[in-house]
Records
---
Amino acid sequence: MGVLLDEDALAWIGRQVKVEGDEITESMVQQYVFASEDDHPAYVSDSSAAAAGTERVVPPMLYQAATRPFKPLKDYSPDGIVVENRPYIGSGQSVGGTLSVEWIRPLRIGDRLSAVKTLVSMKEKDGSTRKFVVVMWETEYRDQIGELVIRERYEQICF
Amino acid sequence: MNATSKFVSDYTSQPTPVADLQPGAAVPPLDRCVSRVQSTLYTAAIRFAHQVHFDDEMCRAQGWKGVILPGFLLGNWCLEAVTRMLGPQSVVRAVSFRLTSVAYPDALHHITGEVSKVEQDGDWTIVTCTMAVNDPDETLVTKATVTVAVPTTE
């Protein structure tokens, strides 16, 4: 245990959160392309992909939306994080740490991802201005036929 | 596109030939300046409601100047700089990025990097690059490793 890591927080280690994502749609792709300004021809449209001689795929980071199904308002913390996705540590706030993602294959319109996220570790550390806890989640996302498409390791910095 | 953003390389321009890609080669830089509106649209596009991207008061309480940009967008810039270099047939295989400092809207960010590894995988050339995002004060706000595949041409 530490200053921030009490028994309640440590009880989260090993916790699993089931993710049932939404089907990736053309509309989601267009929203992402416009917001990011990444107009890779493979992402923009079937015709732009064909003109570039490549397969139509979706922006890789769009998996973030595809694996965040909409939730009732009661499921959100006051700072906007879905409660089941973050242990309550210190002030209850967090920022993102290292995100590592491997795409086994590109995502396509019509894909629907599912996964079980596992909280694998928590480590308390001393920062320059405060103590914080590095929370590590590991997730393997599978497509609609159960094939592995994404491996992800994500750090939450909780303080 | 935001008036203060610019793409140094365009997907419609000639991509860097695979044969020219050697470890140490520079990734063409990319500059990005994101308004609060664009940041809001991006958080909506990834369905992320964290109030550090909307609530100035909350952010100032953390010692920041105001709302901060979503880290996923900074990571995406690193992907994008590499895919723009490799052209429209490029396919992202992997990324690992870490936010080293907060990044703010309405500030011009400079995305740079270099090729660290070039490998063959069947008909594909796999290019790994180390990337950095710096803010206008030259503070490193994100560092990343990006792996992108591109068809090997004769």
---
Amino acid sequence: MSQSLAVRPAQDAVTLARVREIVEQLAARDRSGEILTAVHHIPAREAKFAPMPEWVRAELVAAYGEKGVAELYSHQAAAAEAVRAGRNTVVVTPTASGKTLCYNLPVLNAVLENPDTRALYVFPTKALAQDQLAELHDLSARLGHRFGVFTYDGDTPSDARKAIREQGHIVLSNPDMLHTGILPHHTRWQRLFENLRYVVLDELHTYRGVFGSHLANVLRRLRRIARFYGADPQFICSSATIANPGELASRLAETEFEVIEENGAPAGEKFFIFYNPPVVNRFLGIRRSYINEASRVAQEFLKRKLQTIVFANSRLHTEVLLTYLQQANPMPPGQPPAIRGYRGGYLPGERREIERGLREGRIRGVVSTNALELGIDVGSLDATIMAGYPGTIASTWQRAGRAGRRSGSSCAVLVASSSPLDQFIAQHPDYFFGRSPEHAFVQPDNLEILVNHLKCAAFELPIAANETFGGINVPELCERLSEAGFLHRTGEHWHWTQEAYPADAVSLRSVTSDNFVIVDTTQETEVIGEVDFSSALTIVHPKAIYLHQGQQYHVERLDFEERKAYVKRVDVDYFTDAIRYTQVRVLERAAGDRIVLLPHSPCESSGGADAHAARSHGDVLVRSQVVGFKKIKFFTNENVGDGKLELPENEMHTTAFWLTLERPLVASLPFSVSDRQSGMFGLLHALESIATLLLMCDARDLGTAIGERPPSPGSEIEWDESPGIEAAAALAEKEFFEPNLYLYDAYPGGIGFSEPLYRAHNLLLTKTRELIAGCPCEKGCPSCVGPLGERGERAKEAALEILFRLGV
Amino acid sequence: MSLTDKFAHIAALRPARKREVAPPRAADLSPECDRLAQLLGAQIRRNHYGEHLSLQQWYATPEMCTPDARSLSLLLPRGTPEAHAIAESSADPEQWLFLDTETTGLAGGTGTYAFLVGLAWWDAGGLQVEQFFMRDLDEEHSLLLELSERMARRPVLVTFNGKCFDWPLLETRYRMTRAIPSFTPKVHLDLLHPARQLWRLRLGSVRLQELERHILAVEGHALEWSRHDDIDSSLIPEMYFDYLRGGAAEPLAGVFRHNQMDLRGLAALAGKILTLIDSGNGAADAPHHSTHDPLDLYSLSRLLQRRGNPARARELYETALHVGLPHPVERLAQRELAHLAKRELDYTRATSLWEELRQAPKVVKRNAAGILQEDAQRALEAAIEAAEQLAIYYEHRAKQPRRAAELTSHAIAELRGAQLAGGIGAARARRIEGRLARRLARLERHGVIRTTHKLLRAGNV
């Protein structure tokens, strides 16, 4: 990657003029002023340079010099110095700031100083490792092939593996391969481990939630094996901008980190536009289709000859947008289309061809899933259009960074969908453009995950009685594993005593490997997908309509014992929505506190008054059952029928954050019982949306429930033993005496969300109020408190009243 | 809530198997360990790493074989200049060490143990077997130390599938000790590969027990050991785990016996393979159709041909063809034989074989156990290849381009027929057809232009 500042003044001026023209045109169309919620101008940033450190070897200086890198950016120099000084380092940089140099420079220097030095680079995906390989091969050639660099992944031919293990100074891999391919066979990697000096973790922010919690355990195993061979590697990480990069790195690698955040790379000026499709039905809160709007906006750029990338959040939407844009930009017959699609599922050769076409400017536009968000070099484009909020601020910036790399003008447009998150972001640009509020969380001590990795660790090396592994009591857990037949204690060690290979059964993407297989029986029986256990009952219950790659399937039968769902292809005009009956029992309150009104709070003049509410977090048991389903018509969202289901209930031990509304507060709400209930459910809906925003997670990572507060902490509530569709319906009518509003981790054992929510409850409540209050709908809509049809008329009002009484 | 309650919900802690797990026994060695030693008459070995069990048995059979160095060199990977020198030095059977392990799994990786290591060597006219056994997993170090001492004494390792399985597994175990160096054998003879070359066609499966039944236990005498009460080898890991958890010693006696039989089978197999190759090489009486299955003769010829004895290979192909081979194999043999004849410039024999091949019936039935799809396909291709070879012969040797062109177009027609019938893959067919079409084009260009010129000239005169 070249750092030369080859400015293209003439072309830049044209780009800038065209971008301004589009902005003005969009603004002119927005008569109500509600569509362009932000037109943010980010001025160009000058490079901050630092000299190449003196300790860098002359041949390496020369190799980088040939590539046009004579000086370093300030953050590159700072990172190189920190690594040189032996500190674990995490570099936080935006796209196109030369982050690979931050780790390549010190690592290559160490290899040149001592050819025994070994480094392991871990990328979240295979594609990213491939992309980095090209850069390292180039450097290797310039340095007379004095070091070997290889990728090691599922595609590596078996006859090449031996050479890689012996000759690879730098091995590029991914967490899954480390987990199933390298660690269980560490004796073959003896040379690597004995000399392992650096572990590079790229795109650190992607390791959060379940995946991150697994990675932390894979790293525990990695360090354990390295110790066995007498090595103690240093960590070098890179991350997109998040609020807690240092904390995340420390949680993942369980060691101290130095954080380098100041960015010295130059950047061209950029316009960042939030485009909120116009409201077509204010009462129901319905907006114009964001897909169509995104296509229209993209077309404005394409017709002005600006090279444009369009991001969609699903494969289906990628294809739809691609069709629209190809129709709008026809090519003469026989010529390749000027607009291309890019997503997982395309063949590698085709992908490389598209990447090249983009770099060379032959391809004018590309519609992509998140596959082009990270790393892959496609050169610098003029504009990024995002059809829908990518889910996190970090991802949004990474996608926006695809346009306008170092110099020149560029533009990014976020077209918001009507989901609560999109609406919150579109209407609160300050939240987006200010300091990142996003925290990445992991829970490496999730017992389910940890036990699985402890098994893998025992396979790799017998576990000593005095060993530590995360925050658990190793001997106690090993005894349990012995009783279950996995381990056997001999003297001071536990040994693996199973024929099976434990890593094979542990997927890094889910908490348990208990999955349902979906079998299409339309013609020949064929497995078309898998869903994890916890979502199976809501997605593939009998009579459900299951959507797979845009095709509808009707679930004929669910075989619970065999974990199989049998489906047939259908074409119907409705989808199904499962009715879940969820009860939560508090097992142990880890922490709790009363909510106190602040002096400046709206409803209390004297400071420090009790809001008659409390917040808590702790262990809970969630019992849920799918008791029925609704058939909902496409486009109109009419309820066109429902059905009862008798399915086994599912019990899960997890962690939760909850708010308790005490009797005085509930009683003082000036609403009918059913409106109060609506307000509580509406509030919970909005709380969940904001929680996903703060936790950088997905809606399916969190569950919600409302239940009566137990009489005293720790005491048991009565389970409703005969839940059914009537009970579920009654729940919405029933009056709660002192309700608990639960936000629980949707994974067995919890994935580390509850405690952060407890700590950040003020932010959570404030932003929730902003979401509801800022929503332009009249009485509640899917973007704030949930669809009007499911809530009472006054849900929005009641939810805001509760928040007001909580002091926000 | 206590930790114990939390464990109750962890899926990863659910027992791995449905059957009852034996209660763990006391930390020190239980009576069952001593009982196993008593039961088998095994001894306890001690060194500075600790203890393990050792069981020695001497068997009068199989008898020692003395390999011929030339035959031996045919079993070693070709292309290494020192292969012959190595064979010379390993021709001393006193240097041989047979090895077979029983393990806690087949998956490999660092968590698989070789809990029983069986060794055998020729001694006093018979076979001395010694088995090392870990009564518990912490006896591994002392076992590995003793093993490397035994191996240093006899540096020629002989195994069955040891190159892919037993030896890498043991190397992993040595590396895991971080202390005991593994002894690298001077030569490692893995008999699986020659066995596969020699008998796959006839038997299909070349598992050691199949070889015992069909190859070793024939020629008028049965084996001295019987597999009728042998254990099911897939149960071995579970049997050992049960024993570790305090289960009875008796089932393990069956594992010892199984390993002993495997070692005796291995030693007998080594003798059988070497005798066969000796005879093929001319170091002993030539194999005769009365004592040898023609399929075996064909396989032996293939082995000799591949490993550098084409002259003997040609003789044996002729014998096998003379005795009679099932159809697809017959064609393969003819094809190879024609190839060898051509190399010796014996065009008379080569062309007669090609003619025979070319005219052979095209429908191929797979009528022998070990004939794979690829063998059948190769036999089918042999007809087309024969036509092509003949075309080459007529073009360059016999100087009859018309005949060559005829044969080439005939081959193309054959090929298309075969492809339509599904006997040959599309990609392969395309490649062959490309080659044939180029030849035909060249022949026509030359032939037709010349003919046309002649005609024109004739007309002008």
---
Amino acid sequence: MTLHAIAPASTAEPAQATPMVRFNDVHKSFGIVEVLKGISFAVGRGEVVCLIGRSGSGKSTALRCINGLERITTGSIDVCGHAVTPDGKADLHAVRKRVGIVFQSYNLFPHLTVEQNITLAPRRVKKTAPTEARALAADVLAKVGLSDKIASYPEQLSGGQQQRVAIARALAMQPEVMLFDEVTSALDPELTGEVLKVMEDLARGGMTMVLVTHEMAFASRVADKIIFMHKGRVHETGPRDLLSRPETPELRQFVGTGL
Amino acid sequence: MTLSLANIVYLLQGTLWTVALALLGFAGGGALGLAVALMRVSRFAVLRLAAGTWIQVVQGIPLPVLIFLSYFGLGVTGFDVPALIAVALSIAINSSAFLGDTWRGCIQAVAKTQWEAADSLALNGLQRMVDVVLPQALRLAIPSTIGFSVQIIKNTSYAVVIGFIELTQSGKIINNALYEPFLIFSIVGLIYFMLCSPLSNASRRLEARLRARGA
Amino acid sequence: MNYQFDFSFLWDPDNAYWRDILHGTWLTVQLTVLAIVLGFALGAACAIGSTSRIPSLRRAIAVYVEIIRNTPLLVQVFWLFFGLASLGFKFSAFSAAVLALTINIAAYTSEIIRSGIESVRKGQIEAAESLGLSRMQLLFDVVLPPAIERVLPSLAGQFVLMMLATSIMAQISTEELMAAASRIQSETFRGFEIYIVVAVVYLALAMALRLSFAFLAWAAFPRRRRLGTPV
């Protein structure tokens, strides 16, 4: 396992000893359709893990199980010291305070300004004081390069800008893990670059990240680990050069067809 | 004292008058409403303005006031106006504003390409409206029109204000004699519910079907 | 037909009827405002309840809404006013009117707000949940503001209809505008004139109410104020 960078917040414990996210034989069914057929993998502190695969391979579902948007059927997921279990009794609230997620469709709150979108959760969930929350908003917006849009409403922004605000909104909760669910898929090609750059900066800064992505060039450049999912299983795993030397015919075919 | 068979018969007679009023109101309101809707989408600004004003004014006047206005207003012509006429006329006027406004929306909701296609076939304005637009608008209008018919049935209860003996008034009269308000007005309410509920449900079902078809 | 309109009774020196009209109008306004405030609160609560996870609560609200929407307000008023009186409850006509209007308008309000809640996309809720917001915070910060902004025109329309419907409260001797009109009519026999005056007053009230809601939308929804677009 590559130790790419150590998050500033991490203390003496070695990264390998405490994975930030660990899937333990996770199954997930929608009705009679089994989407995840027992997957296991771990994400170390500061690691960037890319989940790739065809649509329907279960990669988005796996990601959404991490913060409980989908409830797993059997198995368990350890997330930042909390166990996500099938009974749904896991302390989802604690998990969600530590895990940020960015969606394909941005999901910014349309009735709130950029600043209000960002400060809402810190103020409501962490009871951060308003002035402090505003300072925090300015800080994360600077990180995604949108300081001048602080007073705008989402509909006034381009898709790429909205997605960067969504990243800033997640960062404002100072998460230990960030999840990205095909965050560039809804964007025009010319807008994906600005979003990928923000994500790359985050990765270089030591953020633990799990991504579902179709951006193979990005994965090959930034990922510490690439997980190829196929028919609900982890089919092949490897470091960032995995795509240049695929071993299974399925991955070879997937790489060959581009997507 | 308890409710006698005669009381029940009296309530059912009232129900018949309620239904009659609703039918008269719907017929009158529908005819007038269609005129209002067509004027509202007319080429002539004067007609559009007149229909718009009619909608705004009528929708701002309570039905009981319209009933009194009809009653006294027709009275000044020297006729002795039957309450039935005053109430039916008022409901028709009131309904024309609401139906006219709804139907205007349905006419305008017919895709612009349909209007253009009709023009391209060299249909004249009347042919375009009657042969192309209205049939499609009708399909859109059915759910909300049935929904409004529920409103018309409920509105007939306002005939009470000039003492016309429909369902609510007959309930009131029986209650004055028996003083069993919960029982009597529950029965009256139940009869209204049986008249209105099937229409409400039909309207909702058709609405859902229309939405599902993506119209 | 040579009818002579005569509005002089309004400023009759012995009996200035315009004061009665003003007083009736004031009561109509009070009835309307009280019923809107209370009905909105109850209706919003029912709308929230109808999205609850408790099936019996959802069913109870659905039954209430169906009963109210499929029976005339006047019957509801008689049922409450005469019914409660027969049980020995002493209600002023005014309180009974407010109560009946509140129960009535809340059912319509509930349906309208529920449709607004259902228009909020699932992704919005997922985003709020993922940020750790509680169910209540999600409801009040993320779901209700855009939901209510979206349905405000329908709500305003419904409230105008309710204001007009206060005119039947004269039937239980609430001293509002219609009651005043009826008394003036019986004293002056100027039925046509008095109801023309009353119609104009209601028309003005309806316009004032629509304007108030437009102002409220402007004041309550800063996004709309700045962008002027639907949320």
